[in-house]
Amino acid sequence: MVAFIIVFSLFGITCQAPTQRKKVLERNDAEQPVIRVGVLQGQTQVDFRVEGKVSFVNSKGDFALKGLQGGPWKIEAIDSKPAEYIYRLAVGTRKNRSEAEEVVRFAKNKGLDVHSNKIETIHLSIPYIHKSVYQIVLDKKFISESDAKTYQSKIQGKTNSEIIKIPQNDSEGILRFTNLYNNYSFDSPGPIRLSASQIQLADVEVGSGFHWETTEHRTYGGAFEFLLDQDGMITAINELFLEDYLKGVVPSEMPAGFPYESLKAQAITARVEAVSKIGLRHPFEPFDLCDEVHCQVYSGLSRNAERADMAVESTRGIFMIHRNEITEAFYAGVCGGHTENNENVWLINAKKYLRGVLDRDRNRLSTPLSEESNVRKWIDSSPDVYCNSARKNGPKSINYSKKYFRWQVEYKRQELEKIIREKTGENFGELIDLVPLKRGVSGRLIDLEVVGTKKRFIINRELPIRQALSKKTLYSGCFYVKKKGRSKGLTHTFILKGAGWGHGVGMCQVGAASMAHSGKKFDQILTHYYQGIFLQKLYN
Ligand SMILES: [Zn+2]
Ligand SMILES: [Zn+2]
Predict the structure, then answer these.
(1) Cα 299 to ligand 1 centroid, rounded to whole Å
(2) Is CB count within 10 Å lower at the N or C end of the chain?
(3) What pLDDT is attached to residue 236?
(4) What 3-state class would DSSP assign to 244?
(5) What average pLDDT does this structure show over 316-334?
(6) Which of 255, 238, 266 is nearest to 303 (CA)?
(7) Ligand 1 center from residue 101 Cα (angstroms)
(8) 458 CA from centroid of ligand 2 (Å)
(9) Is the pTM above the cut of 0.85?
C-alpha cells in the first residue's frame, strides 16, 4: 500500500500515499434519541423568561398551569433541606467490564482498596451503544465531605479521584414559581416540566475553571424541567432531540465561520461524543450531560448559526463506528502539530483509532516528540502542519488560533511557587526546578517532577499538570521549561514555552478547518484523526 516515502529535512517527516476514501454506510433502523442536558445546577433562585404560551406540568402529568401568556418568572427553593449523605471517592467510570477491571488493577497496584459497581442508566435505543457503565470506587466510606477531601488529597499522588455523594434519605423543600408581572405564584413539591416555544435563562455559568469563565443569558427550545436536587437546590434540565442539541453544540465548540466540511466533521464528532458520554459523566444525576466542557459546550439557541445547522442536518444520524461500537470522539482546539495517544492523557485502554498522528496528511515523525531535545526544537519551530495558521494558503478563519499554536507563560519564582502550592496542596518549600520525566507522542507531559527545597514530588497526567502550573489552566501539556536569571541561589524567572490548546486526543479542530479549506471532505478529515473507523447512518 505504501507507494513512496519522502523524508523532509527539518523533522524527518515521512510521508505515505493516501488510502481510498471511505463511504458512509446506511442502517437507518433506529429512532432519533431524546437527551436531557443539565443547564443550571445548585441554584437557590433562577430567573427565566418565556416566549409565547406556556404550560406547567407536574411529574404525574397533571397541569399545574395551562396555556398562560409568557413573560418573566422566577423560581425559588423554599424550606429546602439537603439529604444526609455518605461520601465515597470514585477513581473512574468505564463502559465495559474489562476496562473497569483495568482501573481496579491500576488502583490495587497503588495500594488502594477499590471495587467496581455496575450502573444501568443508559436509555438510548440506538445500535452499537454501551448499555451500562461501571464505576470504580474506593471501599472506604466517609461521613463528611471534608474527610473525603482530606483523603482525596492524601491519595492524589496515586490517582485522581472524584468525590461522590450517596444520599441516605430524600432532600426536602418545594419549588415556588412566581410570575413577575402579576406576582401570581404556585408551589410544587416535585419536578415541574414546561414547554414553550422559547425560554430564556439568566446568568448561566460558562467555562467555569477555564480562562474564558463568565456568565450569560441563554435561550433554549425544547422542553424544560425544573427540580430540587439532593442538596435541595434547583436544577434546570433541557430535554430535546439529539439533533437539536447538536445545533447548540456545534457553533459553541467550533467557530461557525470555519469551512463547511470541518463543521460537518465537528457535527459528527459532537454527535458521537454526546452518546458515548451518556451514563459515564453523570451516572447519579437526573440528566445525561452537562452543558460545560466537562461533557460538551451547549449554548441552547443562543449561538445558533445557519451554517452549523446545515452541517448538523446534512450529517444527520451519522456516527463513527469501530469494532461494532460507537467510538469515543475526543477532539480539541489546536493539537500543536501532533495529536496524542488517548492512554497518555486519561487512564483508559489504548484505542486503535486514537493513536497520535502528525497533523498533516498520512505522515509520521521520525524524530519522536517524547524525547526532550526533539520537543524543544519542535516548540521553538513553526512546522508545516494543518493547525499552523502561518501555513501557506490556510483559511483566514483560523488566524485567531495563532496564540495557541505556540505560546509562552512567564512567572517569577515566588509567583509560580504560590500557584503550585495552592493547586497541589504540597508544601515543597522554594522551587528549584520543574523536571519533565515522561512525555507522550505529541510532546504532552505525562509526568512532571516538582523539585523544591523541602521535597520533590511528581504531578501525573496532562490535565493535573496544566492545572497545577496556572491560576486557571495552561493551554496545553506540551511545553518545556526555561529558567532565566538567578537570585539568592535560586532561579529568578520560569518561562513555560508551549504548543497547542487542549488535550490533543482525536480531531484537531483548527487542523480540521485547514484540511477542509484544502479541499478535504468530512470523511477524509475524520479518518485522518480517527484512523480505522467507519461512518454509518443509524437513523433518518
Ligand atoms: Zn458533564
Ligand atoms: Zn493540529
Answers:
(1) 14
(2) N
(3) 95
(4) helix
(5) 96
(6) 255
(7) 23
(8) 28
(9) yes
Main-chain phi, psi angles of 459, to 5 degrees: -100, 130
**Residue 275: other Cβ atoms inside 10 A:** 23
Which ligand has an atom closest to residue 273 CA?
Answer: 1
What is d(CA 11, CA 252) in angstroms, rounded to the nearest whole number? 35
CA distances 49 to 53, 143, 181, 209, Å, are 11, 40, 11, 28
Mention every residue, 6+ apart, whose C-beta is less than 8 A from residue 20: none
Residue-level pLDDT at 397: 95
Q: Which of the residue ranges 30-44, 368-382, 506-520 would you say has the lowest mean pLDDT?
A: 30-44
For the CA atoms of 348, 353, 356, 357, the dihedral, rounded to the nearest 10 degrees, stands at -170
Q: How many CA atoms lie within 13 A of 272 on its CB side?
A: 29
Spell 185-205 as b/e; 16+ CB within 10 A means b. Answer: eeebeebbbbbbeebbbbebb
Residue 226: enclosing H or E segment and its boundaries? Answer: strand 223-228
> How far away, in angstroms, is 295 Cα from ligand 1 center?
4
Whole-number Å distance between alpha carbons of 376 and 385 = 17
Q: Identify the pLDDT of residue 16.
A: 45
- Which pLDDT score is estimated for 519? 97
Over residues 364-382, mean pLDDT: 94
**Position 4 pLDDT exceeds 70:** no
Q: How far is the CA of 448 from the centre of ligand 2 (A)?
A: 23
| Helical H segments across 329-456, by residue range | 372-380, 402-405, 413-424
Measure the CA–CA gap between 540 and 349, rounded to whole angstroms.
32
SS percent in the chain: helix, strand, coil, step 5: 25, 35, 40
pLDDT at 211 (0 to 100): 58
Mean pLDDT of 108-123: 90
Question: Nearest bound ligand to CA 297?
Answer: 1
Nearest to 321 by CA among 33, 129, 44: 129
Q: Where are the alpha helices (DSSP H) in 193-259?
A: 242-253
What's the CA-to-centroid distance between 507 and ligand 2, angstroms? 8
Cell of 424: 497541589
> Rounded to an integer, what distance in angstroms lies between the CA atom of residue 199 and that of residue 194?
9
44 C-alpha to ligand 2 centroid (Å): 42
Report which of 213, 214, 219 is spatially closest to residue 201, judged by C-alpha positions: 219
Q: What DSSP line would sit under 327-346, residue for residue? A: ----EESB-SSB-B-GGGTS
- pLDDT tens-digit profile of 55-87? 999 989 898 888 888 889 999 999 999 999 999
Given a contact cutoff of 8 angstroms between Cβ atoms, the answer to whether 261 and 21 are in contact is no
Give CA angle at 253 (249, 258), nearest 5°: 110
Beta bridge partners of 135: 93, 117
Identify the pLDDT of residue 2. 35
Proximal ligand: closest to the CA of 505: 2
Predicted confidence at residue 1, as pLDDT, reads 35
**Integer Cα distance of 477 and 379 in angstroms:** 12
What amino acid occupies position 336?
G
